[in-house]
User: What shape does this take?
Amino acid sequence: MTETSREIAVQARSVGDAAIIYASDYLNKLSGERIERECRRQLESGCRTLIINFRDTELVNSIGVSILVGVIDAAEQNTARLIFSDVNNHTANLFEMLGLTRHVSLATNEEEALSLASEARPRAS
Amino acid sequence: MKQTTILARTAREDFIGRDAELRTITQQGSAAKSRGLLLLAAPGAGASELLRQAYDQLFLQRRFSIPLHFALKRGEASETETARRFFKTLLQQFIAYRRVDPSLCEAPLTLPDLAELSLPADYELIAGLIEGFERSESSGREFVDFCLSLPHRLSVEGRTAYSLIDCLEVPPFGPELIVARELIQAVTRVNGPFAIAGLRRHAGELLHAADHLSRDVSDAIHIDCLSDEDANRLIDIVARHDAIETNQPTRDLIVQQLTGSPFYLSEFLRAARETGTQLTSFLNCQRLYVDELMGGSIKRYFDRIISSVADSPPTKRTLIRVLQESATSETRKSSLWTWKKRLGLAAHEFERVIEALHVYELVNSTAAFIEVNTDSSAWTDYLRAQYQLDVTGEPRAKVVAAMLLGTLKRAPQTMARKYRRESALGLSDLLPQFNCQSIPSVLLHYDRFAAAYKGEEAETIEAGLVAESDLIRLPQVVHSSACSAYLNTTACDPNRCVVAHGFEEAEYTDENEIIWLAAEIDSKLEASRELTEEWCDRLANLAAENRFDRFRIWLIAREGFSAEGSELLKQRGALSSGAQQFHLLLARIESETEASTAKADEYEMIIPMGEDSEFIAARTVEEIARRVSFRPEAINQIKTALVEACINAAEHSLSPDRKIYQRFVVEDDRLVVTVASRGIVPGQLSRQNGQEASMADEKEGAKSRRGWGLKLIKTLMDEVEFERVDDGTQLKMTKYIRK
Assistant: This one.
């Protein structure tokens, strides 16, 4: 398996002012940086909630996690909400162990994530 | 049925204790790819007979090369004479082999006889060789070259020879040495196997001219004296054969006194047969021994060496005096300068004397010091007798009586040394096996062991040790010797008091250097505070005198240590074990060594660094873990740990080959994953063994970006340790199966 053979583009879609970004099967430096770039792009275009969907993610390494920390920072700076969805048990434990869950909400699926996002959205005055 | 002997002087079944060596030599002749073999022998170790036995085996096996045996002789100084004998001996052996007639090997045959006896297929070759021999006989140098080229000439005609050259009798200097070198050079240049036997301290001189040899020699066999058991068997067999009565105590005494030397033993038993001496009592044994020292073959053996270097009676007398006075001095060691001055010889003569004494292992000579070798009782007894006879001029009868009385008085001590050696726990064997193993620390703290396990059943102790979480990592011992080798003034049993140099942790650094000073204490009961203190002081003094900076004392007492003794050990920071702990430790180390050499369920994998290759490794370990019924959560933990280990290897090592070496070993209750890479060792990495992972303590928490790998691994796996490797790092991670 080579870097070039692996999935190049990060899949993402927008639902209202939320963006759902799909992580690949292995969250490492390369795929992590792609997610980070997409997240920053979404934030710059006015996205208020970032949902990273881990449904395809089998494995996350510590470099991948450290990049997610960068995404957490970026979201905080932009006062945006960050939600991880479809995280398998092992990865959830890993995030817990590394303290990520103190800064990120976990949702079992996209629906729950979107629901969390709407709860958090500031009401129009 | 007894096998025929051809050149051997002992029947094969009576040739004791050299089976492995014999196999190596005969297999050398059958392995087409291998070339040369060196037999490095201690004096009197029986290497000549070993070579003859090998010849017989090769002759009878008739499988590959044609064996040709030649023994250089002492006193055969003429190059021409040696070359002539070489040619004729080898040609005769060649014809004997081809005719499958061993009796021809040593028959009195002329060259025309040999031509007549050659097989029709060989006749032209043999006739041509004999003609060439006769033609060049008067031509000096050319004749020598022709004779020595016989193995080569046979080889080019398609008859590959296996040359077995015995150089044991070649003296350390003189014309014989020059001839031997030429012969070795001729034999080793032939495209066929060869074996050369020589005294181990003489090999360098013998092979001096054969500078091409290093690339051809595939192996070296060290031939030492026989083990006690083999020497006992040898005496038993020879004594039965010669109708000499012996018993176990006398056999033991003879073995100890003659240090298991096949030469001394054979000569001693020959003397018993010739004089009709029954070796049934210590008195009979020592009478015969003293006779051998005063006028028998043991005396002749040493006389010959002394006479070869000290030809005039005054020089001989001076040499005996210097040797005896050095042997009985406190250190047995003097400077080279002192020896030279006392012997009063010219520089060249002096060098010859010392070289000869060193080669025959009568002294140990270095660039600065000479030490008389006192390991051999026969040598020191000979020296004492000769000193009394030739230097102090004692009457012979008085010397004989003194020798007999002395050896009889010494016999119980000689036996006691043997018993003590045999009853020793085996520190000198155990310490060299220390290789960074992790063992329950309770095995090195007697008080804790006694409190937890004293009086418990073996199964309970074993189960308890398996469950112990307080582990201690042993050093890697790289050199160990008896304490007595460090301190002449401390009387220590070599098998019971050992100095072991090594390294803690997985790196060869100054900080990791450590010296273990281990001693087995004699005590019928638990060792008292006084005895414990005496040994702690003794070993601490040894450390001080040798300027050992970092050292650790480990005392072993069969019955352990009293409460006061244990308290003192604690104060001194010393380790302690009883015999039971020692045996448990030994068993663990040996089983680990066996396990590491024979693992049935083992997978190996090499992946390139980078390009997500760790993901492939993770998938592989997942498949292996699934097969041995790990739960899914555990499988994920193993995968993540492996990925982290691979990332660590790739990021920190500056690996020259950019590869990660992985081994997955499935054991009954666990999976052991080893990840190794070449390159540099990150400073902080190898010092992390045994440290607890502390993810929770992470102050920065999620906000600290990197450096989680090793902590993650320690959290996810049950046991994690860096193993010592010469280059790079090797991380061993263990996960237990919990069903």
